[in-house]
């Protein structure tokens, strides 16, 4: 296991979550949120970002999917923040566009320590199985706020499954690029000396 690893937990009246993230992984995933499509997206997130990811969530799905998706994103964001430490040596900036059939999604990130989130697009269908499509946008926002990212996401398409999957893949490929260690760099990638 690499040094850039974090384990985070969260327990509220709405969710109980355990999350372990290894940034320098192989893409392995063990995910159980109780929402099939969300599990698929998180598994894809690990696979295409080459992050090792374990997430176990017991949420109030009898209400809806909101608390589960939001709280998983919060915990995953906290895990990214912890695993990155002082962000010494990272690339910091990255952007990617990813197609999935007719859908195209883009992500631009600055691992800045200054959380901001912007989204451009919409989803063609309101739900994908038991997953509310707009929760993909909210996942990005909650992740950015808790990982200390400036994050811009965009998506177009005709099928919500493709749109959301392309969005998760664009996000994870961008995070993989931005959080990699740049062997040419010493210290924190900022003229201020800190992020």
From TrEMBL:
Biochemical pathway: Amino-acid biosynthesis; L-histidine biosynthesis; L-histidine from 5-phospho-alpha-D-ribose 1-diphosphate: step 6/9
Q: Where in the cell is it found?
A: Cytoplasm
- Judging by the UniProt lineage, the source's domain of life is Archaea
Entry-linked InterPro entries: IGPD_sf, ImidazoleglycerolP_deHydtase, ImidazoleglycerP_deHydtase_CS, Ribosomal_Su5_D2-typ_SF
Q: Name one GO molecular function term.
A: imidazoleglycerol-phosphate dehydratase activity
The record's listing under Gene3D superfamilies reads: Imidazole glycerol phosphate dehydratase, domain 1
Query: Top-level EC class, please?
Result: lyase
Sorted alphabetically, the Gene Ontology BP terms of this entry are: L-histidine biosynthetic process
Recorded catalytic activity of this chain's protein: D-erythro-1-(imidazol-4-yl)glycerol 3-phosphate = 3-(imidazol-4-yl)-2-oxopropyl phosphate + H2O
The signal peptide stretch is none
Keywords of this entry: Amino-acid biosynthesis, Cytoplasm, Histidine biosynthesis, Lyase
Q: Which family does it belong to?
A: Belongs to the imidazoleglycerol-phosphate dehydratase family.
**What name appears for this protein in its UniProt entry?**
Imidazoleglycerol-phosphate dehydratase
* Gene name in the database record: hisB
């Amino acid at each position: 296991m690499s040094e850039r690893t974090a384990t985070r937990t969260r327990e509220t009246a709405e969710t109980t979550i355990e999350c372990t993230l290894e940034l320098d992984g192989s893409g392995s995933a063990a995910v159980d949120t109780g929402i099939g499509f969300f599990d698929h997206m998180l598994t894809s997130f690990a696979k295409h970002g080459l992050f090792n990811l374990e997430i176990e969530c017991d949420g109030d799905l009898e209400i809806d999917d909101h608390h589960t998706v939001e709280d998983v994103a919060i915990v995953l964001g906290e895990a990214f923040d912890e695993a990155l430490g002082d962000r010494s040596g990272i690339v910091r900036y990255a952007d990617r566009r990813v197609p999935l059939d007719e859908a195209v999604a883009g992500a631009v990130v600055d691992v800045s320590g200054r959380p901001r989130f912007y989204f451009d697009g919409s989803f063609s269908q309101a739900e994908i199985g038991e997953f509310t499509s707009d929760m993909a946008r909210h996942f990005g926002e909650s992740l950015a706020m808790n990982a200390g990212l400036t994050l811009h996401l965009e998506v177009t398409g005709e099928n919500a499954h493709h749109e959301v999957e392309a969005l998760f893949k664009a996000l994870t490929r961008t995070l993989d690029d931005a959080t990699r260690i740049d062997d040419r760099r010493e210290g924190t990638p900022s003229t201020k000396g800190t992020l």
